[in-house]
Amino acid sequence: MDISFSEQDLQFQEEIRAGLNGSEYPLHVREKQQKGVALSKQDMIDFHKFIHSKGWMGYNWPEEYGGTGWSPVQIYLFLNELALAQCPTILPFGLSMVGPVIYTFGNQEQKDRFLPDILEFNTWWCQGYSEPGSGSDLASLKTKAVLEGDHYIVNGSKTWTTLAQNADWIFCLVRTETTQKKQEGISFLLIDMNTPGIEVKPIITIDGDHEVNSVFFTDVKVPADQLIGEEGKGWTYAKFLLAHERFGIAGVPVVKVQLEKLKNITSDYDDANLSKKIAELEIDLEALEFTELRTLAAIAEGGHPGAESSILKIRGTEIQQRLTELFVEAAGQYILPYEGPDGFESNKTPAGPDYASPSVAQYLNYRKTSIYGGSNEIQKNIIAKAILGV
Amino acid sequence: MNLNYSDEQNMLREQVLKFCETNYDFIDREKILDSDSGYNEENWKQFAELGWLAVPFKEDNGGFNFGPIELTVLFEEFGKALVVEPYLSSVVMSGTILEASNIPEKSEIIEKIISGEHQVSVAYAEPNVGYNFLDCNTTLSKDADGFSLNGSKSLVLNGGNANKFIVLATHDNAPALALVEADVEGLSIQSFKTLDGQTCGELTFENVSVSSESILALGDEAKLLFNKMLDVSILCISAEAVGAMTSSYMKTVQYTKEREQFSQPISNFQVLQHRMVDMFIETELTKSLMIKATLQLDSDDPEASKTISALKVQVGKAGRLVGQHAVQLHGGMGVSNEMSIGHYLKRFTAIDSMFGNTQHHINKYQS
Question: Are B137 and B84 found together in one domain?
């Protein structure tokens, strides 16, 4: 066993760090990130275009599809550096979700049509999975697609669709057949958000943010060549996609940076109890980080992360949530004034530390993390079934 | 020993419950939150007509001379419906201090509070002193004509609407409580929305004149009075938290019975049942400490302040658990602002932060 990274890995790390601190980096994005201010659509586009300009967009893709072909260790180091440089998260919808599904299960024409735009961030994708009646029990979904000639006619609705208001395309799980086994009638369909019959309605979350949406489909005509793979195989592709999504879900690097920030903030608070809680969190984070590294090492040797990655999701989100609680605790009563994730009007600022309002936003917003991506209860069911065999 | 509410107290509870059922559904409340003032004037008038604004005041000032028990009854019901009207600031906080004072204006001000005509807020917090409210930097100094106030106060509940303020300041290295008009020269006010849909204000005093008739208390008397106000206020928001916890677990039980996944109501799953049982247990334990503190305050028990700290700690811990579990069990619906459940979590978060958070009261309990 050897705990250290290789010379080449460290050199790689240096290159990434230098690139992220270079003059091409969009400074307005970094400024907002440091202040904890919400990013606009254009900010996100600027950031992704920068990542593309460095040739890093396909960080988790094989070279044959225009990706970097990086090793799992390199991917790990890259994501670490992004967090250290206080970058936004690279949007997963195109790059980590639909992209790998297209290059793994799509036909050549689909690969040529969609993959380059994902890498160049010319298209913003969103995910059409959850429905009002299908959350944890995703396979019970009801949005229907009926083949008529060379088009599917789609009717139904999707919910909790992250950033659908910005999206150009949506990838959807739709029901093409009513089968005995509910997983068998599901297909994977790519839909242009500009198609007539699609309506996006905002859902405002408890932090006051507009991040998620309901998406309604009324007789939406989708060309049949936008079906991925085979009809009725959508569930297989969806499961493949979920496995891909797991990578980095623990959010370790981001938590590390936030934790350092909290330690700096509270260093002169002379609050032994808060310091103790921060230390306990840091210890839990160490255990989680090394668990992630073990997973990584297994992948590097050609293994496939199984249900173990559910540990990363569960403990990762628990730590993320606890961290937001500690920020709120540190801010004390000054969390009271709160007018939304964008902060306050520029001509008025309430008393108290400037991290107070972003801490409230983060605390409320992060309640979602134990709910999304398969709730933590579902993750525990997965471990119970797949690992413990009970 | 008798731990039953009286018929009169039960009637009061019924009355508040009915009011909230008729006037305070989620949509009514949303409209109030979206308004500039952050409360509903019609509701406030009704509070006055129903006599609620008179609850804690002495009879010779037009009040009902009710004590902590009646206040907790009111607040428990307010908590269930997440009532945002400024009852805590204007009636409880200001009322406690005004009742104990001897200023000439006293009965006139109390009458106006009871009639709903005026609202008064206590300016107790400051930017840099955290929960050590009495160590404040705002000064009340003597000058030729009387006194003058300088400094700034923050987190003043209902600060944008209040007609008068009771200001905690330092005078001769000791605490002082002074009454000032909201429109007095030298006072500027900025109002903010709070995370739980209420409002608070930031006040800046620049050479604000205060006549000696407006000094409510000085020195040890001010300290005693201020601490008593904190105790009563903590009791009230704790009762409110008990009400909010009760609603949270009941709504969660209801939701899990209705929500079907995997072809069955999710309330069938034992892991969720146990979570809801935990929510229920925490609510009951909080209620116990709330009643204990109520009765101790009611009988001027010297142990009351310590029980109040214990209660505040329990409210902080239980509120977090109940609020977070309620959101989690509602799934995505729990984080939607269109559902009431997330608003309970926000109120628990605000309540924990006010008048000393959980850790502050653990320390106070130990000392």
Answer: no
DSSP string, A192-215: ETTSTTEEEEEEEBTTS-EEEEEE
At residue A46, the pLDDT reads 97
Q: Are B93 and B128 in the same domain? A: no
Domain stop point among B218, B242, B275 = B218
**Is A271 touching B (CB cutoff 8 A)?**
yes
Last residue of a domain, one of B188, B218, B248: B218
Structural element, H or E, at residue A271: none
Q: Which two tokens stand for residue A251?
A: 């959010």
Could you tell me if A27 lies within 8 Å of chain B, comparing CB atoms?
no
B286 and B324 in a single domain? The answer is yes
pLDDT band for position A183 (50/70/90)? very high
pTM: 0.96
> Is the ipTM value over 0.90, yes or no?
yes
Q: Give me the helix-helix angle, A252-266 and A272-300, nearest 10°.
A: 160
Report DSSP state, residue B266: G
Cα(A343)–Cα(A224) distance, integer angstroms = 45
Is residue A24 part of the annotated active site? The answer reads no
pLDDT of residue A119: 97
CB-CB neighbors (< 8 A) of B127 in chain A: 351-352
Q: Which of A328, A338, A350 has the CB atom closest to B202's CB atom?
A: A350
**H-assigned helices in B173-303:** 219-258, 270-298
Number of folded domains that form chain B: 3
| Structural domain range at position A177 | 125-233
Q: Does residue A284 sit in the same domain as residue A373?
A: yes
Is residue A2 situated within a structural domain?
no
Residues A256 and A224 in one domain: no
Q: Cβ A334–B359 below 8 Å, yes or no? A: no
- Distance from A286 to chain B by nearest Cα, in Å? 25
Q: Do residue B72 and residue B187 come from a single domain?
A: no
Q: What is the CATH number of the domain that holds A139?
A: 2.40.110.10
Q: CA A41 from chain center: how many Å? A: 16
Residues of A with CB below 8 A from B154's CB?
A: 334, 350-352
Provide the residue range defining the domain that includes B152. 120-218
Q: How many domains does chain A have?
A: 3
B258 and B320 share one domain: yes
Instruction: Residue A272: list chain B partners with CB under 8 A.
Output: none
B236-253 pLDDT tens trace:
999 999 999 999 999 999
Cβ distance A360 to B349 less than 8 Å, yes or no, reads yes
Lowest mean per-residue pLDDT among A208-212, A301-305, B32-36? A301-305
Q: Largest Cα–Cα distance in chain A?
A: 72
